[in-house]
Design brief:
single chain; alpha+beta; 2 domains; eight-stranded mixed β-sheet; 6 helices; about 25% strand; elongated
């Protein structure tokens, strides 16, 4: 369940105005919202890696609802999806034609339907240098059962910007990639009231895509930057201390 952006904005304004600390405009808030959402999203990966080490040493709590590694993985589910890439004969590879930005590539599956028997194989991802060396060797040359790939960017008509291109050997008939996408930028949409005030517009707003459990972290993170904008060190200090305490509670 996503976090309502109006709830976050009104809470931030309430905290700032209660102590007469200042005010931030919707444009400023939207910029901070994008930054803080990205920081929280990026932190899932090192946090997950750290918690996974606890799993490996059997020191992680595996009780239902209290396994923090599973909790981090759960928060990433909305951003994970299997994507069928488009075959591009000209470049002898597959391109991503979606509108969202890919953050990480997971399992890459190559499917060969024109061969007997049909084969669906996990494809190993390598660097371009390693790929070139491996495919040139008769001993290590990839097969339908053990395909190899690397990624690059290419300008592919009619697009005018670079697109992600996956080069696979041997070239399969279809390519499916498990991807993690970057969250959509949140935005507090508004109109102007009769008194010149900003009026929340749900139809033009974009909520945070993070899990609802991140609402407190979003508010604290935005308040931290608000203190910098309005030059109030007390807000920065209070928000930073609260963020550290939340992090300690989550990771202890």
């Amino acid at each position: 369940m996503a976090v309502n952006i109006n709830s976050v904005y009104t809470t931030v304004l309430y905290i700032l105005n209660k102590e007469q600390r200042g005010y931030i405009t919707p444009a400023e808030f939207n910029s901070l919202a994008v930054q803080v959402q990205d920081e929280i999203f990026q932190a899932y990966f090192p946090d997950g890696n750290q918690l996974n080490r606890k799993n490996q040493t059997n020191s992680e709590n595996d009780t239902e609802f209290f396994n923090m590694f599973k909790d981090v993985a759960y928060k990433l589910y909305p951003f994970e999806n299997d994507v069928v890439f488009t075959k591009d004969i000209t470049n002898a590879g597959f391109i991503y034609n979606g509108t969202r930005t890919i953050f990480k590539l997971g399992d890459i599956m190559s499917t060969y339907t024109t061969t007997v028997p049909n084969t669906e194989s996990v494809t190993q991802l390598a660097s371009k240098r390693d790929y070139t060396e491996i495919v040139r060797s008769n001993l290590t040359k990839p097969t339908n059962s053990y395909p190899l790939c690397y990624t690059t960017n290419a300008i592919i008509a009619p697009a005018t910007t670079s697109q992600l291109l996956v080069k696979v050997s041997p070239l399969p008939d279809t390519l499916t990639v498990n991807c993690i996408f970057i969250p959509t930028n949140p935005s507090w949409g508004f109109g102007v009231g009769t008194l010149g005030q900003y009026v929340y517009s749900p139809s033009t707003s974009v909520n945070f895509e993070l899990d609802t459990s991140e609402q407190t972290n979003l508010i604290i993170g935005i308040l931290k930057y608000c203190g910098i904008i309005i030059r109030d060190p007390e807000i920065v200090q209070a928000a930073t201390q609260e963020a550290k305490q939340v992090e300690i509670n989550e990771k202890s």
